[in-house]
C-alpha cells in the first residue's frame, strides 16, 4: 500500500502546471537533440546544468530526466531515416531501420521504435518504483568500506560493458581517476597537479570535461563527414501503422528487449547503450520464421528490440543513482551534478528527506513517456524537416551555446579554453576508437572513492583488512573480481568483441 501512497504523492507533485511544463520541455528538447546528429544527451544536459540554478530542484531534475529518455526516442528517427544514429544507443537501430526505410517501410519502422520505447519506458518506470524502497533500506547498511567496494564494482562494470578494447576502457577509467585528483586535497589542503595555475586549484569542472569530450569532440568528428553521407527519406514516410505480421514479430521482440534492458540498466556502466547491443545480439540468436526478412536487410525485430531495450535501460539506470547515490553512466553522473547544485546529496537519504523530489521524478517519467508518443509519431513530419538543415548551420549554434553554458557556470574564460582542449582530446578518443564514457565515470567516482577509502581507513585505524572482513564489502569485491575473471576468459572475450563489432 505504501507504494500506492508514494506514487499518489509523486503524481501530485508531477501534475502541477510548472512541472508538467518542464517535463514537456525536457521531452521536446530530448527528442530534438536525439533527432539532430552530433549532439547527444550528455552534451545537452551539460549545457543546461547552469540554467537549472534558477529552477526548483524537482522541476530541474524532471526536465533533465525528460531530456535523457527523450533523446532515446529521437535517436531512432535519425537512425531510420538518415543512417546516422542521433544518439549512441541508436547505433544498432541503424542496421535494420535504415534498410526498412530504403524499402519504403520507414513508417512501420518508426512506429515499432515508438511503441517499443513507450512500453519499455512504462515497464522501466514501474520497476524503478517497485525496487526503489527495498534498495534504499539496504543502502542504509552501507558504511565507507561498502561504498568504496561498490564503486570499484561500478568501475569494473564500466570496463566490462564499454564497447571496444578492454585495455582502452581501463586506460579511460584510469585517466578519469587521475583527472579527478587535480585540485586541492580536502584533508591536507595541498594543491595537487595544478602546475601553479590558480584556476586549477578548485579542480577541473565536470561540465568542462563533459562538454569538451562529448559536445565539441562529436562536432569535430561530424564535421569530418561529408554532407553526401546523409541520405534523408523525407518523402517516403507514409502509413505509420505496422501490419498484422509486423505486430506478430514485434511484440515478442519488444518483451525480450524490455526484460534485457531493465536488467542491464541497473548495472554500473551498462545503461542504454549496452542494453541495445545485447537485445540486438539476442534477436539475431532467435530463429527466423519462414518468410521473415533476414537481419541486416530490414527485419522489424532489429528495430523494436534495441529501441525497447535502450528505453528500459535508460529508466532503470535511475535505480542505483536514487537509491545508492552512485551514477551508473555518464548521464546519471550529470544528474549527480544537478542534485549537488541544489544541495541535495544523492543517496538513500533522498527518499526520506526529500520524498517529493524522489517520487515526483518517478511519476514524471510516466507522464514523459506519454508525451513522447504524442511528440514522436503524429509529429514525425516536423522532425524530418529538421533533418534537412545543413550541418554547417547547426554546428556554429551548438558551439556558441556550449561556450555560453560553460562561461555562465563560473564566469571564467579559462573554462572555455579548457573545453576547447578537451574537445580536441575527445576528437582524438573518437579517432582512436576509445569510448569516453568510462573516463567521465572515473572522473565523478574518483573523488568519492578517495573520500570513502580515507574514511574507512580512518575508522579502522589504517587496517586495510576492513574491506574484506566486512561481509557486504567482501561480497562486492568478490563480484568485481569475478566479473574481471569472466571477461578475461578467451571465449567470453571473443564473444564480447563480436557483439561490439556490430557498431562498425
Overview of this protein structure:
The protein has 504 residues and is mainly alpha-helical. The protein has one domain (7-503). Helix content is 73%, strand content 1%. It contains 23 helices and two strands. The chain has helices spanning 2-14, 17-35, 41-48, 57-82, 93-102, 106-139, 144-161, 166-181, 206-223, 244-266, 271-285, 301-316, 318-324, 330-341, 349-353, 355-376, 380-387, 391-410, 413-432, 437-459, 466-469, 471-488, 490-500, and strands at 183-184, 191-192. A two-stranded antiparallel ribbon has the order 1-2. Strand 1 and strand 2 form a beta hairpin. The protein starts with a helix and ends with a helix. The mean pLDDT is 81.
The number of distinct structural domains comes to 1
Mean pLDDT: 81
Classify the secondary structure makeup into a structural class: mainly alpha
Bin the strand percentage: under 5%
The radius of gyration is: 22 Å
Total DSSP helices: 23
Q: What does the overall shape look like?
A: globular
Q: Helicity, in percent?
A: over 70%
User: Could you list the spans in which at least 5 consecutive residues all have pLDDT below 50?
Assistant: none
Helix and strand sequence: HHHHHHHHEEHHHHHHHHHHHHHHH
End-to-end Cα distance, whole Å, is 48 Å
Strand order of the largest sheet: 1-2
Q: Characterize the biggest β-sheet.
A: 2 strands, antiparallel
Total strands: the figure is 2
Amino acid at each position: 500500500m505504501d507504494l500506492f501512497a508514494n506514487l499518489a504523492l509523486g503524481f501530485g507533485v508531477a501534475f502541477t502546471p510548472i512541472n508538467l511544463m518542464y517535463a514537456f520541455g525536457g521531452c521536446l528538447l530530448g527528442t530534438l537533440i536525439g533527432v539532430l546528429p552530433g549532439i547527444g544527451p550528455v552534451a545537452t544536459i551539460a549545457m543546461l546544468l547552469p540554467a537549472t540554478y534558477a529552477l526548483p530542484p524537482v522541476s530541474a531534475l524532471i526536465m533533465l530526466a525528460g531530456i535523457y529518455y527523450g533523446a532515446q526516442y529521437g535517436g531512432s528517427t535519425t537512425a531510420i531515416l538518415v543512417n546516422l544514429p542521433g544518439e549512441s544507443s541508436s547505433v544498432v537501430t541503424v542496421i535494420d531501420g535504415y534498410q526498412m526505410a530504403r524499402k519504403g517501410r520507414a513508417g512501420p519502422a518508426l512506429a515499432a521504435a515508438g511503441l517499443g520505447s513507450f512500453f519499455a519506458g512504462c515497464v522501466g518506470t514501474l520497476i524503478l518504483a517497485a525496487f526503489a524502497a527495498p534498495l534504499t533500506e539496504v543502502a542504509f547498511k552501507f558504511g565507507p568500506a561498502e561504498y568504496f567496494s561498490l564503486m570499484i564494482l561500478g568501475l569494473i562494470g564500466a570496463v566490462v560493458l564499454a564497447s571496444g578494447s578492454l585495455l582502452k576502457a581501463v586506460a579511460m577509467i584510469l585517466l578519469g581517476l587521475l583527472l579527478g585528483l587535480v585540485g586541492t586535497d580536502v584533508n591536507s589542503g595541498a594543491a595537487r597537479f595544478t602546475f601553479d595555475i590558480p584556476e586549477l586549484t578548485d579542480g577541473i569542472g565536470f561540465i568542462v570535461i563533459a562538454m569538451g569530450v562529448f559536445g565539441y569532440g562529436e562536432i569535430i568528428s561530424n564535421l569530418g563527414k561529408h554532407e553526401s553521407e546523409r541520405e534523408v527519406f523525407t518523402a517516403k514516410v507514409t502509413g505509420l501503422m505496422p501490419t498484422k505480421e509486423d505486430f506478430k514479430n514485434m511484440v515478442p521482440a519488444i518483451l525480450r528487449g524490455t526484460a534485457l534492458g531493465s536488467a542491464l540498466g541497473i548495472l554500473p556502466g551498462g545503461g542504454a547503450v549496452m542494453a541495445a547491443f545485447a537485445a540486438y545480439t539476442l534477436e539475431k540468436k532467435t530463429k527466423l520464421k519462414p518468410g521473415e526478412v533476414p537481419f541486416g536487410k530490414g527485419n522489424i525485430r532489429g528495430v523494436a528490440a534495441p529501441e525497447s531495450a535502450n528505453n528500459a535501460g535508460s529508466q532503470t539506470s535511475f535505480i542505483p543513482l536514487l537509491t545508492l547515490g552512485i551514477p551508473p553512466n555518464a548521464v546519471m553522473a550529470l544528474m549527480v551534478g544537478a542534485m549537488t547544485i541544489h544541495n541535495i546529496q544523492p543517496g538513500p537519504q533522498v527518499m526520506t528527506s526529500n520524498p517529493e523530489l524522489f517520487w515526483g521524478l518517478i511519476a514524471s517519467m510516466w507522464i514523459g513517456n506519454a508525451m513522447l508518443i504524442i511528440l514522436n509519431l503524429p509529429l514525425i513530419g516536423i522532425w524530418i524537416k529538421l533533418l534537412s538543415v545543413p550541418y554547417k548551420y547547426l554546428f556554429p549554434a551548438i558551439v556558441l551555446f556550449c561556450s555560453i553554458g560553460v562561461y555562465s557556470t563560473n564566469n571564467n574564460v579559462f573554462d572555455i579554453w579548457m573545453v576547447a582542449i578537451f574537445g580536441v582530446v575527445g576528437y582524438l578518443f573518437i579517432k582512436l576508437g576509445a569510448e569516453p564514457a568510462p573516463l567521465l565515470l572515473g572522473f565523478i567516482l574518483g573523488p568519492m572513492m578517495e573520500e570513502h577509502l580515507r574514511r574507512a581507513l580512518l575508522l579502522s585505524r589504517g587496517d586495510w583488512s576492513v574491506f574484506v572482513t566486512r561481509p557486504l564489502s567482501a561480497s562486492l569485491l568478490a563480484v568485481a573480481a569475478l566479473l574481471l575473471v569472466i571477461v578475461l576468459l578467451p571465449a567470453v572475450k571473443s564473444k564480447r568483441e563480436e557483439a561490439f563489432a556490430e557498431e562498425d
